[in-house]
UniProtKB/TrEMBL annotation:
Gene3D superfamilies associated with the record: 3.30.70.2860, CinA-like (3.90.950.20), MoaB/Mog-like domain (3.40.980.10)
Species in which this protein is naturally found: Clostridium pasteurianum DSM 525 = ATCC 6013
Coiled-coil spans in chain: none
Protein name according to UniProt: Putative competence-damage inducible protein
Domain MoaB/Mog: 4-170
Gene from which the chain derives: cinA
Pfam families to which the protein is assigned, alphabetical: CinA (PF02464), CinA_KH (PF18146), MoCF_biosynth (PF00994)
Length: 418
């Protein structure tokens, strides 16, 4: 089945509100095999909204709308749907009583315009809203389905999960199971070059790639009679993908994060870590601290932004700064070793660079970052040339650093150092 998401609201067109609903709905539909080929945003205008319904229902089996179910005159999603399907709007007494009860809970009297929210196209399936005053509805007509949901995510998401998804699942035979592979260290184009033939020849399971900040995600989805069989079908394709990409580049599965993988390696192998940051200003430490239980491994993080702090706190040699500068491989190495020794940790990690927008030169341009890592007496450095604004450069430096820590830890442990 094909679906289209129709997001209603002038505030979305103006950019006042980020359209997170469409992202959430698309992901949930993809999880059980409903394809979303179009997402449309339309303002609170009757004619344009009716045209949007017409386009959507001509090219999709299911149209899911969000927004426009409120009490005001410009909330017209139900009204235009009723007009489109040539249905009368009729009062649903149960919904009206629930709206009245909602207002009583918050010690307010229901207004006349709120009663409009209890009217629905005749024959609709009502979707209860336990978190607001705008119930939704499902209209089935001529082998087409329109599902109308409110705009606020705190209302829309529970209604989608509790009512809409179970309703849509009845149109699917068998079981759909997905597994997500998370890839870092190689870009989207490299992934496509390496496994493009697998994607091109996909049948069951399907392989869907998409890029996120600093990583690539592959979703493998199998349709079978049961979950066990689905994973059995996914396994050889996953193995083939890992072989092609290099297992080290597949850092995790499902909802794992790169900082979580690093933290788990540290904790399980009883290794301690400390960080010394200049250009990233504590972002690296903040990412590691995202992981619950990291306190057993992460002992200290220092933001040593000035040369004076690098000298006093990390024991970076003044001669190193004079000869090579703060943004250098030599400085990164001494920072990593210095924080490890000062903190008494097995591992020390450092970042130093030029995040911009000013301060770059031909020799050391904006985006130049050096990373240092010290592991029980072994010191290594890495040079990064990053692009983007100041925040992007800092974020990317942290992402690359976490991945490098992961790779170096795996190498260190494989060499029998655990």
């Amino acid at each position: 089945m094909k679906a289209e998401i129709l997001s209603v609201g002038t505030e979305l067109l103006l950019g006042d509100i980020l359209n997170t609903n469409a992202q959430y709905i698309s992901r949930e539909l993809a999880n059980f095999g409903i394809n979303v080929y179009y997402q449309t945003v339309v303002g609170d205008n009757p004619e344009r909204l009716k045209n949007a319904y017409n386009f959507a229902l001509n090219r999709a089996d299911i149209v899911i709308t969000t927004g426009g179910l409120g009490p005001t005159k410009d909330d017209l999603t139900k009204e235009i749907a009723a007009e489109y399907f040539n249905k009368k709007l009729v009062l649903d007494n149960k919904s009206l009583q629930e709206i009245i009860t909602f207002f009583k809970k918050i010690n307010r009297e229901i207004s006349e315009n709120n009663k409009k929210q209890a009217y629905f196209p005749e024959g609709s399936i009502i979707i209860e809203n336990n978190n607001g005053t705008a119930p939704g509805c499902i209209i089935e007509e001529n082998n087409k389905i329109a599902i109308l949901l409110p705009g606020p995510p705190k209302e829309m998401i529970p209604m989608l999960n509790e009512t809409v998804i179970p309703y849509l699942k009845k149109f699917h035979e068998g079981t759909l199971v997905s597994k997500v592979l998370r890839i870092t260290g190689i870009g989207e184009s490299s992934v496509d070059n390496l496994i493009g033939h697998i994607i091109d020849n996909q049948t069951n399971p399907t392989v869907a790639p998409y890029a996120k900040d600093n990583e690539v995600i592959l979703r493998l989805t199998a349709k079978t009679n049961n979950e066990e069989e689905a994973y059995r079908i996914i396994e050889p394709v996953e193995r083939q993908i890992r072989n092609k990409l290099g297992d080290i580049n597949v850092y995790g599965v499902e909802n794992q994060t790169i900082e979580g993988v690093v933290a788990k390696l540290l904790i399980e192998n009883k290794l301690t870590i400390s960080t010394a940051e200049s250009c990233t200003g504590g972002l690296l430490a903040g990412q590691l601290i995202n992981y619950p239980g990291i306190s057993s491994a992460f002992l200290e993080g220092a933001v040593t932004y000035s040369n004076k702090a690098k000298i006093n706190r990390l024991k970076v040699k003044e001669d190193t700064l004079i000869k090579f500068g703060a943004v250098s491989s030599e400085c990164a190495a001494e920072m990593a070793e210095g924080i490890a020794k000062e903190s008494g940790t097995n591992i020390g990690v450092s970042t130093t660079g030029i995040a911009g927008p000013d301060g770059g030169t031909d020799e050391k341009p904006v985006g130049l970052v050096y990373v240092g890592i010290y592991i029980n007496g072994i010191v290594k450095t890495k040079k990064l040339n990053l692009v983007g604004n100041r925040q992007k450069i800092r974020d990317r430096a942290v992402a690359y650093t976490l991945d490098w820590i992961r790779r170096e830890l795996i190498k260190y442990l494989k060499e029998g150092n655990n």
